[in-house]
Write a structure and sequence with these properties.
about 525 residues, alpha+beta, Beta-Lactamase, Alpha-Beta Plaits, 3 domains
């Protein structure tokens, strides 16, 4: 197997693992009973790794002992209610780190001889301990033994177990909170109502496949849950090392709100530690400010009309990935309470895992340079949309796009400027595409857009909109005017199969090039690219 095949196998394995984790998250979000969660969690581990032995421990309410709640293939000397103390030794310190770690060395000897002998932990027949930790709090511990096939645990296996344990930790915390609330009759109604909100939000989140719509939904739910006026959701940009506003909700000017959410308008960014959002991100601790104009941490902006603020971190595997910023409580004299904070933190725990999983998935299917979908994902989506169009009798139009004279851009101004041009054009495609459209990078300077439920006339309107936008754009530092040629073909008018549709769109693109470029052409039978 050559290096390319190995990379493809690794990519396919990574996509499979990401899909499995997304499915696990869906399963966890649909459960509110801790016993059911334990069963689902251990079942996933068994099916994924084929372990001969495992044991799941949960910290008791006093946080002094690990109590076994599930076990398989353990030594007969261990009782069904086996537990061991959470002492302050090296084993406890390793558990608190939150990362999977080996319990035996390369010779199979215990790495923690004293606690294993003292507490009979050798009876677990363990190879690895996988801590269940969320935001620095130890929730439980998973012990896994040898795989039935005899293979060792790989780095990818341990990463999978780590992320799965993080998801399970969030769900277990939520489920245990739910069960505890049932016993507390005084606060029962309020607690159940809040948890019901979180439960429904969690279930709704699993049905949202793209990051932008997921962020919009999370922010809307955060504002409604806390009964606030408006808010924003920021994510940390690893390249710029700053917090970037991705979505806003509740602005008086809806055109401005839409421009920000679509990416047509950029907002101020924040450094780590800067302002309230930066402080929350840096410390991973929420902040309530009920008199914003008197708080020195608030970076005043008169146009924002902010009176009160509730800001929480979004944390995954003890790493902050962003913040949710909610402003201006509508009721209760405009004051955010600790109850608001607890509820929003619980929502944030669910949201952070969902955002992280969706971000990882989008990274796997997105072209790094342009931010558009990769060709492999385009093929998958075209197949799905083609089958849907055929089943329901809809039109489906494909737009093939190619930048005019792009080779001369690289030859004259260098590949870095060529990359800038590609990024600029890709940004225009994303701005002008409908939510249902699927823009992708086809290769080099070629782009392709799937236009569901769009006939030939609608495709021409879309194509002209893109062509005009590109021709009218100005790229900083680039003295030339970029233009684009576009070819359109429609199912079933121009083709009756996927490959025929691609060929027809490519033929139309060829005609646009032959007729002078900077044109939009529909497919004409009998014309083919040379």
């Amino acid at each position: 197997m050559d290096q390319t095949d190995q990379k493809l196998v690794q990519l396919e394995r990574k996509l499979f693992d990401l899909s499995s984790l997304l499915q696990a998250g869906k399963a966890f979000d649909n459960l509110l009973g801790v016993r059911e969660l334990y069963n689902v969690f251990t079942s996933i581990v068994q099916e994924r790794f084929g372990v001969e032995t495992f044991a799941l421990f949960i910290m008791d309410d006093d946080r002094t002992r690990f109590e076994m709640v599930q076990g398989l293939g353990l030594s007969g000397e261990l009782p069904a209610d086996f537990s061991f103390p959470a002492d302050e030794g090296l084993l406890w310190q390793a558990i608190r780190q939150g990362q999977p770690f080996a319990t035996v060395d390369s010779l199979g000897e215990s790495r923690f001889t004293v606690p294993f002998e003292r507490y009979r932990l050798s009876g677990l027949l363990s190879r690895y301990f996988v801590p269940l930790v969320h935001r620095g709090k130890v929730v439980g511990l998973l012990s896994v033994g040898t795989k039935k096939n005899g293979n060792s645990y790989t780095d990818n296996d341990l990463e999978f177990l780590h992320i799965l344990a993080e998801q399970a930790s969030v769900s277990i915390i939520t489920a245990k909170l739910y069960e505890k609330s049932e016993a507390d009759m005084v606060e029962l109604n309020k607690t159940v109502k809040n948890l019901s909100i979180l439960y429904n939000i969690g279930r709704a989140m699993i049905h949202i496949g793209d990051l932008k719509n997921l962020l919009k939904f999370i922010l809307q739910q955060a504002i409604e849950t806390t009964e606030a006026q408006k808010g924003s959701l920021m994510l940390f940009d690893q390249q710029t090392r700053r917090l970037v506003i991705h979505v806003v909700n509740g602005l008086p000017d809806k055109k401005t709100e839409e421009a920000i959410n679509s990416g047509a308008m950029t907002c101020r960014t924040f450094a780590v530690g800067e302002g309230i959002a930066g402080k929350v991100f840096e410390t991973k601790e929420a902040i309530i400010v009920n008199a914003a104009d008197k708080d020195e941490r608030y970076l005043e902006n008169r146009e924002s009309n902010v009176e009160s603020i509730l800001c929480i971190p979004l944390v995954v595997a003890d790493e902050a990935i962003g913040v949710i910023n909610i402003t201006n409580k509508i009721i209760d004299k405009g004051i955010f309470t600790t109850e608001d904070l607890e509820l929003l933190n619980a929502l944030g725990n669910q949201a952070a895992v969902a955002i992280n999983n969706t971000s990882l998935y989008e990274m796997a299917i997105t072209d790094e340079l342009t931010g558009l979908y990769i060709r492999r994902y385009f093929n998958v989506k075209l197949d799905a949309e083609f089958r849907r169009a055929r089943r329901y009798g809809h039109r489906l139009t494909l737009a093939m796009c190619d930048l005019d004279h792009f080779k001369s851009v690289n030859d004259t101004f260098g590949h870095q400027m060529g990359d800038t041009v590609l990024q600029s054009v890709a940004g225009l495609l994303k701005i002008h595409a409908r939510e249902s459209d699927i823009p992708a990078r086809f290769g080099g300077e070629e782009f392709v857009i799937i236009l569901p439920e769009t006939n030939g006339e609608g495709g021409m309107i879309f194509g002209e909109r893109i062509r005009t936008a590109v021709a009218g754009s100005k790229i900083e530092g680039f003295p030339r005017q970029i233009t684009i040629s576009i070819g359109l073909a429609t199912f079933p008018d121009d083709a009756d199969s996927i490959q025929a549709l691609i060929r027809a769109a490519d033929s139309a693109l060829y005609e646009a090039k032959q007729n002078g470029r900077n044109l939009v052409h529909r497919f004409v039978p009998g014309v083919s690219p040379s």
